[in-house]
UniProtKB/TrEMBL annotation:
Residues 789-798 have a biased composition (Polar residues). It is found in: Nucleus. This is CRC domain-containing protein. Pfam families: TCR. PROSITE patterns: CRC. InterPro entries: CRC, Tesmin/TSO1-like_CXC, TSO1-like. The keyword Nucleus applies. It comes from Vitis rotundifolia (Muscadine grape). Residues 501-626 form the CRC domain. Residues 48-57, 356-369 have a biased composition (Low complexity).
Length: 808
DNA sequence: GAGTTTGAAACT
DNA sequence: CAGTTTCAAACTC
């Protein structure tokens, strides 16, 4: 059964591969070639998955892809080329290489162990699996030039190898089939859990599993990836969460060992340990972890399947498979990265190492500040995994992270705590949401959704931030390994350095409990990188943090909402103006600049990469992203170039512009392909979300993007940040507005989607308005599906307070 | 790295 | 709601 599905699933990807967007994405990430496989999954997962995942996916994907390639290479020792790579990678960075290898191996291993062993005749079976996967992705049977080309484009350095791989793969069509079988088997495993959940999926359950929906992002993506990717992926994705959480825990390892099912954990384990053995272990944890993930995955699978089926053709099937595999892997990778990133965020710099020692790193990292945070990331304990896994999605939330961190610290060390806090922090992932969102609930029931969104957004942002950081680090490494493009490497490293340097707060008097604190404002706990004094924004002071948050929210329900909102109006245009993106998005409150002319980061609008709007009270506005008076993006482009060159923006702006332009361009390219404007914009997003071209995904993506945007703003300085702003522009608006709507849900998406702020209070972007979110609608609809639990939660959870905002 | 500038956040 | 103060980021040197 799986096989057909796979093909079906794969097809969508193949489409994307051909699509300019796909190419673009590939170009973005050198590794992409590898990705090709997972793409389908990505999409599917994306649709369900949380935005964050989507966000990450782009970034992550590249890495993963690279990893994949490497893995494959690594796995395929038989081939000289591969061996070379391995060597190269190893030489470049032993740790990273090890990690990458592990990643690849993990999935591969699981697969191999499962599939290859039986099917593969050759001793190389191990390599064979990976190869098969890779090849499948690339087009094992069908030598699709496009894929190869893409890959080569993205990964010029690797290209040669890939090509060889491709050929090899082609020859190995059988192997691929085997891999499919394996995948099917894996799916079967995963599906079982999924099916169970799916069958049982009651909204209530979903709600109860709030975390799941959220978690889905990661978990779902994982699940999808697993299903689509052939099990191997799943394990990886799944493992990602589990690993992140679990890695720290030795217990997990034990559990994993005991369990044989999942490959997920294997991922982490593999990372920590080294490959082969991990594959076996993977299964164990999976069950627990997967369970939570399963539902999402199942849903995703279903969706994906349906989509894929519709689209898929036998021919495409292969390609799709490949692409899907790639996508899936990417997603998984992205997911992992997130986790890692979180961890990274906690230990940012340290985390780099962490990658190598995913498990150990998490635990080890706990340092003074960082430790707590890091731990948060780690939160999942093996035992908790289930619940945590469920929550993980939420966990993604910054708060969750923070809470999780606490929990992680406590939980990991003190499981009881976890249980105790469950309500708030439950699993790490959830806790964040719960603690933050629910705890904060003051905003409202209706708000809750918003909160969730917010959380998600924040989470995304954080993730992004972390990712950015991690990416920078990871990217630096991975890319370097993978791509080797010196420029990118440099950038990455630079960005990473910037991120690290820039990240986190420096509060001295606010105790990090006021909006002055960027960490607090972002819904994150302060971490190591922070140089704050007397910081109370730590998991240890969760109660205080939550209370403070509530207070602030009571004063201003939107206080923690993304500052930049993308107007729904904006969307409709998409075709047009990918470039205008900035204009479409607006700062929710507007700026009050008087001396900076809205050309410096002092200006929140500028910092957010959005143009000033009527709501702004700025004087002498020269915002390159759009002036209050009306000049907007079109001009912006010109102005930007000029201004950017001119002012301080030199650094940021110049990069900014470049990035934006590049993105815009990409977006433009994409736009045609993808229906939604969103897609066009967020380069990364598009690929992910749209890869499937599924509108829903876009919505999800949008959400994620928004969060990203959010973070990006904060992180602004870093190159990623620069990008983020753009994304943010696109997405930011969406998330808040959309989510709220969705959450409110009640708001029927279809109908009237109140495109704008769910709560009039919430975001009231004066500008936006409404409306037009048609483009978004698709996304919204998708969102609803993906996040059904939220809506239900909202009503259920608290009707009590609707936040002043909306709910209506 | 220290000091200054800036504008948001918080307070009155 | 307006004015003032506080705060920390952004920026400059």
């Amino acid at each position: 059964m799986d096989t057909p599905e796979k093909y079906q699933i794969a097809t969508p990807i193949s489409k994307y591969e051909d699509s300019p967007v796909f190419n673009y994405i590939n170009s973005l990430s050198p590794i992409k070639p590898v990705k090709s496989i997972p793409t389908d999954q990505t999409f599917s997962s994306l649709s369900f998955a949380s935005p964050s995942s989507v966000f990450t996916s782009p970034h992550i994907n590249p890495q993963r892809e690279s990893r994949f390639l490497r893995r494959h290479q690594f796995t395929d020792p038989s081939k000289p080329e591969f061996s070379r790579r391995d060597n190269d990678e190893n030489t470049s960075e032993g740790v990273l290489d090890a990690v990458h290898q592990l990643d690849y191996l993990d999935p591969g291993r699981s697969d191999v162990g499962i599939t290859i062993d039986p099917s593969n005749k050759d001793p190389k079976s191990d390599s064979g699996l990976p190869q098969s996967l890779k090849y499948d992705c690339t087009s094992p049977e069908d030598n699709r030039i496009p894929n190869d080309e893409i890959e080569t484009e993205t990964v010029p350095e690797v290209a040669g190898r890939p090509a060889s791989h491709v050929h090899f793969v082609q020859g190995v069509s059988k192997e691929r089939r085997q891999s499919f079988e394996i995948e099917t088997e894996l799916r079967g495993i995963c599906q079982i859990g999924e099916s169970e959940e799916a069958a049982g999926c009651d909204w209530g359950k979903l709600i109860s599993d709030d975390t799941d929906p959220l978690i889905f992002d990661s978990s779902i993506s994982k699940a999808h990836s697993e299903v689509q990717n052939h099990k191997t992926v799943d394990p990886g994705t799944y493992s990602f969460i589990a690993t992140v959480l679990q890695l720290p825990h030795d217990e997990i390892d034990d559990l994993q060992k005991s369990q044989s099912i999942g490959s997920v954990d294997s991922y982490e384990q593999c990372e920590t340990e080294e490959t082969v053995t991990k594959s076996r272990d993977v299964g164990e944890i999976k069950e627990t972890d997967q369970t939570p993930a399963v539902p999402s995955s199942t849903l995703l699978d279903k969706l994906v399947v349906s989509d894929s089926r519709a689209e898929v053709d036998d021919k495409k099937g292969k390609k799709c498979m490949q692409s899907s595999c790639k996508l899936g892997s990417q997603q998984q990778l992205s997911i992992r990265r997130r986790c890692l990133l979180y961890e990274m965020t906690g230990a940012h710099k340290k985390k780099l190492v962490y990658n190598s020692d995913s498990g150990s790193s998490a635990s080890s990292q706990s340092d003074g500040k960082g430790s707590s945070d890091e731990k948060q990331f780690m939160p999942f304990k093996p035992g908790n995994i289930h619940s945590s896994s469920m929550l993980p999605g939420i966990g993604l939330h910054l708060n969750a992270l923070a809470t999780t961190a606490e929990d992680g610290n406590k939980v990991v060390k003190h499981e009881p705590l976890a249980s105790e806090r469950k309500p708030m922090s439950m699993s790490r992932s959830i806790p964040s949401l719960n603690s933050m969102a629910l705890a904060q609930t003051p905003l409202n029931k209706s708000l809750t959704p918003n909160l969730l969104e917010m959380d998600l957004v924040r989470f995304d942002s954080e993730v992004q931030a972390t990712e950015d950081a991690s990416q920078t680090s990871d990217f630096g490494v991975s890319e370097e390994f993978n791509h080797g493009s010196p420029k990118r490497k440099r950038r990455r490293s630079e960005q990473a350095a910037e991120n690290e340097a820039c990240k986190r707060c420096n509060c001295k008097k606010s105790k990090c409990l006021k909006l002055y604190c960027e960490c607090f404002a972002a819904g994150l706990y302060c971490v190591e990188p922070c140089s704050c004094q007397d910081c109370f924004n730590k998991p240890v002071h969760e109660d205080t943090v939550l209370q403070t948050r509530k207070q602030i929210e009571s004063r201003n329900p939107l206080a923690f909402a993304p500052k930049v909102i993308r107007s729904s109006d904006y969307v409709p245009e998409f075709g047009d103006e990918s470039n205008k993106t900035p204009a479409s998005a607006r700062h929710k409150r507007g700026c009050n600049c008087k001396k900076s002319s809205c050309l410096k980061k002092y200006c929140e609008c500028f910092q957010g990469g959005v143009g000033c709007s009527i709501s702004c009270r700025c004087e002498g506005c020269k915002n390159t992203f759009g002036r209050k008076d009306g000049t907007e993006e079109a001009e912006l482009d010109e102005e930007e170039t000029e201004e950017t060159c001119d002012k301080n923006s030199l650094d940021t702006s110049s990069e900014y512009d470049v990035v934006l332009r590049g993105e815009e361009e990409h977006s433009d390219l994409v736009a045609p392909v993808t229906p939604s404007s969103e897609i066009s914009r967020p380069l990364v997003q598009l690929p992910f979300t749209f890869g499937g071209g599924k509108p829903p995904q876009s919505s999800l993506l949008s959400v994620g993007s928004s969060s990203q945007m959010y973070t990006s703003q904060k992180f602004g300085p870093s190159g990623f940040i620069c990008r983020l702003p753009k994304f943010e522009k696109h997405l930011e608006m969406i998330p808040e507005d959309e989510t709220p709507e969705i959450l409110q849900g009640d708001c029927t998406l279809a109908g009237g989607v109140k495109s704008t702020s769910p709560n009039s209070k919430r975001v009231s972007p004066p500008h936006h308005k409404i409306g037009s979110t048609r483009a978004w609608r698709s996304g919204r609809k998708l969102i609803l599906r993906s996040i059904p639990s939220f809506p239900s939660l909202n009503p259920c959870q608290e009707s009590s307070d609707r936040s002043p905002g909306k709910t209506q």
